[in-house]
Amino acid sequence: MKTIPAQEIKRRGIAAVDDLLATGDVHIIKNNQPQYVVLSQVRYQELMEAHEEAYIARVLASLEDVKAGRVRRFASAQELMDALELEDVD
């Protein structure tokens, strides 16, 4: 990932980021630490779509676990906590 100091953006404006953005995501460095990441709109949309797909896959996998009986149900939060404590002991 390309980097650019925040000072360079102050000096040159957003054009400094545009030049680097053409080759990928850009870290903005402030106080010698990466502080921000700038993405193109296309890259941002790709990440959001991938996030949505992963979310749907997790929900579908959870539903399959329920259908297959791989889910334990608890009557209360305390019952769940007790079961988790027992698992830690084992």
Characterization of this structure:
The chain is α+β, with helices and mostly antiparallel strands and 90 residues long. Helices cover 60% and strands 17% of the residues. The protein contains 4 helices and 3 strands, in the order E-H-H-E-E-H-H. It has helices at residues 6-12, 15-21, 41-67, 77-89, and strands at residues 2-5, 26-30, 33-38. A 3-stranded mixed β-sheet has the order 1-2-3. The longest helix has 27 residues, at 41-67. The mean pLDDT is 94.
Short description:
With 90 residues, the protein is of the alpha+beta class.
Question: Which secondary structure elements does this structure contain, and how are they paired or packed?
Answer:
Elements: E1 2-5, H1 6-12, H2 15-21, E2 26-30, E3 33-38, H3 41-67, H4 77-89
Parallel strand pairs: 1-2
Antiparallel strand pairs: 2-3
